[in-house]
Design a protein that fits this description.
Blueprint: E1 3-4, H1 18-27, E2 32-35, H2 44-54, E3 57-68, E4 71-78, H3 85-111, H4 117-125, H5 132-141, H6 148-156, H7 171-180, E5 184-187, H8 197-210, E6 214-219, H9 224-236, E7 240-244
Parallel strand pairs: 1-2, 2-3, 5-6, 6-7
Antiparallel strand pairs: 3-4, 4-5
Helix pairs in contact: 1-2, 3-7, 4-5, 5-6
The protein binds manganese (II) ion (3 copies).
Length: 279
């Protein structure tokens, strides 16, 4: 069984429509897919139709941006009730935060001499939510930088002019939204935060105290030493383990749908929490 519990569509910063994403997941041998777009559930309806058509099991998901110790972290909600009041409220809140943030990013980039980025990022986002990769793609489009990577390094990454994060909700708030929506809160890709192990343990403690239940022990293709160390930490903290590709774009083999190492036996799979006993 392949569970891929972290992926993105064009409803946020992914390149594929929800329909294309589901077909690609099926072709890659994924049995259970969670669509976890950034702060939106807008892609889930189309993904649900496509999944029913091809016999793929779809989990309703979302990836929330939040703040912990003044650092941006991501928390995935799995198996959330998309009609619940809590989730509707959460999505509304995040939409307002993202709109405000996009304006602030654009104002800061304008101070650096790059005009028109808000309109550009909005156009590239289409009907989806505006994210930093949309700003990055616009900067590439107008020739301000050579690549999306350089755009993050120069303008949008941590500590750069376009890094606006003060508006995000707390870890506690996000876990509460997910829990009230009947879902499981999963701390996403801990290795990406580049924290010391001591700091990560402190984050896990706060996350657990808030009601968080699982951690993404496997995020795309990663070194097995990372998987082993995270597995140990997560089991020791009494948390369940999740796995996913964090797929955004075709032709990025390190985050391809379904293509990652499995969970170690020491871990309790997150899907056991909602009564799916398969391994
Ligand atoms: Mn993304
Ligand atoms: Mn993320
Ligand atoms: Mn993601």
């Amino acid at each position: 069984m392949i569970f891929d519990l972290h992926s993105h569509s064009s409803a946020s910063d992914g390149m594929l429509s929800p329909l294309e994403l589901v077909s690609r997941a099926r072709a890659q041998g994924v049995d259970v897919l969670a669509l976890t777009d950034h702060d939106t559930i807008a892609g889930l309806e189309q993904a649900r139709v496509a999944a029913n058509d091809c016999g793929l099991e779809l989990i309703n998901g979302i990836e929330f941006s939040c703040l912990w110790a003044r650092q941006g972290v991501h928390i995935v909600g799995l198996n959330v009730d998309i009609d619940s009041e809590a989730l509707q409220q959460a999505v509304g809140h995040q939409a307002r935060v993202r709109a405000e943030r996009a304006e602030q990013i654009a104002a800061r980039l304008a101070k650096q001499g790059i005009e028109g980025t808000l309109e550009g990022a909005r156009r590239l986002a289409g009907e989806g939510v505006v994210t930093r990769p949309h700003f990055a793609r616009y900067l590439v489009e107008v020739g301000a930088v050579k690549s999306v990577n350089v755009a993050f390094k120069k303008y949008l990454g941590a500590g750069k002019a376009g890094d606006v994060k003060a508006l995000w909700p707390s870890v506690e708030q996000v876990v509460e939204w997910i829990t009230q929506a009947g879902g499981v809160a999963v701390l996403a890709h801990p290795d990406k935060y580049k924290m010391t192990r001591t700091k990560l343990r402190a984050l896990l403690a706060d996350f657990t105290a808030a009601g968080g239940q699982a951690v993404e022990v496997v995020s795309g293709k990663q070194q097995s030493a990372v998987t082993k160390e995270l597995s140990r930490m997560v089991s020791a903290a009494g948390l369940a383990a999740s796995c996913g590709s964090d797929f955004h774009v075709p032709n990025q083999p390190w985050q391809e749908l379904g293509q990652f190492g499995g969970l170690t036996e020491a871990c309790q799979p997150v899907w056991h929490l909602w009564g799916d006993e398969r391994v």
